[in-house]
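idk why but the lab printer keeps eating my pages so im just putting this in chat instead. protein + adenosine-5'-diphosphate:
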Amino acid sequence: MTATAAIEAAGLGKRYGRLGKWAVRDCSFRLPQGHICALVGPNGAGKSTLLAQLAGLLRPSEGVVRVLGKAPGEMRDRVSFLAQEKPLYGQFTIAETLRMGRELNPQRWDDARAERIVGDGGLELGLKVRELSGGQRTRVALALALGKQPELLLLDEPMADLDPLARHQLMGNLLAEAGESGTTVVISSHILAELEGACDYLFLMEGGRVRLGGETEELLGAHALLSGPVAELDPNTTVVESRVTGRQMTALVRKDGEIGGSWESVEPTLEELLLAHMRSPEAPALLAPSAEPRALAHIDRKAGAAA
Ligand code: ADP
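predcted complex ->
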């Protein structure tokens, strides 16, 4: 018996317009509950489109997606989504904004939690939203998103307009709040440094697909960064990326073949792992066992219209 996944997608696809380009395509993955998960990938990879589908705001063009075991549209009161555009009214005070959050979510709203997040940023409840900086608005939007006590929190590049200090503080707050309540968090970003150390689960998206997925530690441990004199690698080794400088070669490989003795082998950093995959779109995809879809594995992917 497997616990319900926070998210499960099989063959998920989305195209904008009937003849448009596919923004998400053949996207299959599973995210177990309770993780802080990074969704990374270059601009245009399909991250925002995927998050909007998970939030129930965009219907799949094909494939199936389940959030906490149900169709995303049925789960809106248990899922919070913070899009890049923050839905705040400039003329409202912070107190009025939080009151709106309470009125929209009367069953689950946690006043103390929302006020704590605002207070941690040194913000007075009487301030008007239009008087706030970008980072302060993000904090209020996050207080609204977490005050609702979601089981799944989806954040689309929430820290993009923040300076590194504000980003660090807000990320710390977010992780503490999520850790305390066991909320599953998915946070998209193209700032790789923002995620190092913060996320215990990871999906790398590119061209609308998931290319790497699983526990961060497991994905790092499945790769080795080799360096040494130019030499033949075992033909069974999957090479993600290799470079030759003079007689020296460095290669990021999967630890699936024999690595000969002449190589110096270290575990890559998260940034090295992600950059190597982004520079090598032809490298095969890798999903850790926990990230493989299960419940939806056999569903016909043309079922999108019914999902
Ligand atoms: P990311 O968030 O990774 O930058 P997006 O999901 O925003 O990626 O975009 C994926 C692809 O879909 C891009 O090629 C983008 O141009 C296209 N796209 C996104 N939104 C729309 C839209 N509303 N109409 C048409 N194309 C879109």
